[in-house]
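Consider what follows.

. . .
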Amino acid sequence: MQSSLHPSALLEPFTPAMAARAGIGRSALERLLRQGRIIRVLRGVYLDAEVDPDRSLRARALALVVGRRHLVVDRTAAWVHGGERIEPAARTAVPLDLHGRRRHLGGELPLGPQDVVRLGPVRVTSPLRTALDVARRLAPDRALAALDGMLRSGSLEHRRLLAAAGSLLGQPGATQGRELIAMADARAVDGAESVLRLCWLNARMPTPVPGLVVNGHRLALALPTQRFAVSLEDVPAFVDWPAQEWRVLALDRGRVLAGDRGYLSEHLEREFHQHLLSAVHGLNV
């Protein structure tokens, strides 16, 4: 952003009122939003599109719109703790889930003192409690992206999450929650890799290795023994791929996020089995 329009203070989260005090009116704000130069992180809270919002910055953004009496839960709490969203940030703000404001998909678990933490002036369900909630309440793709992001950010340890999964027994969504908790993996770099892994695991394929590096190339998911992998790099194919015996399927991140999950599972399965048939054919030649 040009400094003439955006003083350094606006590299922090800001509201329209704060922008107005810096000389940026409502029409200019909307124009910058359309141009992709700022993003709406929460309803009524904006951020320079070039700034990567870490957990501390997310908490500061939330403090602009949430009072001390509120308790932040579910999708918003997962986001504050580092959870990934699979909706485009440029078009959809993070939903504001507050305790008592919305109807949850599942029943309520009692909240204990260990289930609530303070991030500055804001009260938020703890990372562990938040993970247990979103695992059973959200759609599987959104839940897994949130869990992966929380693990990746360091706000949550997988061993603690696995140990706590038993507390979901008897709750609505417990089966889904426990399955997703077992699948969660910090090696996914973004929501697209989380969605891709979920589709892979729903197909008839062996369990993949996330983030495997082969010959200097990072693969989103890979089967080293079968030499089959998927890449989400922004290239159409591995032009100079040195290991010709590998089958590397190059997919677009945006299409993975926006596409049909069932079709993607079928596509992965079909490509994998074609690769196996080709390998067998090569051995028989």
